[in-house]
Amino acid sequence: MEETLVTKLRILADAAKYDASCASSGATPRKAAPGGIGSTTPSGICHSYTPDGRCVSLLKILLTNYCLFDCSYCINRRSSNVRRARFGVDEVVQLTLDFYKRNYIEGLFLSSGVIRSPDYTMEQMMLVAKTLRQAHGFAGYIHLKAIPEASPWLIEQAGLWADRLSVNIELASDASLKRLAPEKDAPAIKATMGQMHERIAEAREERRIFAPAGQSTQMIVGADETTDEAVLTTSASLYSGYGLRRVYYSAFSPIPEASRALPVKPAPLRRENRLYQADWLLRYYGFTVEEISAGGKDGMLDLDIDPKLAWALKNRDRFPVDVNTAERELLLRVPGLGSRAVDKIVAARRHTRLRLDDIARLSAGLRRARPFLITPDHHPLRLTDRLDLRERLTRPSQQLSLFP
Ligand code: SF4
Asked: Which of 4, 14, 125, 348 has the fewest CB atoms nearer than 10 Å to its CB?
């Protein structure tokens, strides 16, 4: 590998690490045609994680970290004193193929600073994906970060070649975006999301391929005063209004020579984690934003316990529930029971009356679920009588000895 390419790679892979919005788990299974290369798997490619939980198995790079814009929270902003570099289309294509063949990666996540114009930048990114697919038969995963304000035609071209498209909303409140990224245009970001949503829905109806893994976005949390409740309200409206597959949350971390408008301390990673848990409750467990935030205080989630347990502890009158008769929706609200465990319980109870041992076989979360469940052999005390329930359920786990 040429030295210059190595240097560019070092700069542009490092610059991309602040973007959390990558995962390929939405990809449909696909194998390359004869003479082509690559594949996607339904389980996604997120097999490796950095210590703070970020997926690293995509080649995750920027096309360039030059940028016309000056967003305060971004290391690549125009006024930032960082080393700059830029890949050509062919260089990204070659790197992706070389890394894929060496089994280092299973796909490409390509983002970019805005150079020359949104259209020019979007065209370069689209050409990377098109060249990989058309000239090299690459069937691996490709996620392109769409540039807001790029022409609809270019976004539509990008969707023909990429598995996933995303455009970052960046901050949950339009007012904060205006303050911290005045050159960005919140309505333009949402218009791009709306356009991608329409094209994806149309293609699905017409059984054509257009960004088959859908679209996602990223929000930075902790760079402004926005509460978790407001963040989740924005997420809920993005899921319902634009059919997003995922909203990624990225805890704000200070950047060198940061603007005074930003906090000096990083946001706790646990906040990011609680938001992901809450997001899951929104999408798969039938919770509303109001219910989730009622489990915390002043619009913020409880950092010490997960949002489902926080809700259950504040709604003790709804428990315990009978495993053998309760509606699926109510079982989904039992702390410790995941949706797969609930489905297994619902299927199993058609044939038998479930006892506590059966629940232990169907769910790994029985310890947490126990006080909230009734079975023929288990009738817990009324939860309102247990003042110490929170402490009992949140007792820190102990590492077992490897050698008895
Ligand atoms: S447009 Fe993107 S790359 Fe440019 S400064 Fe803003 S966030 Fe950073």
From this structure: 4
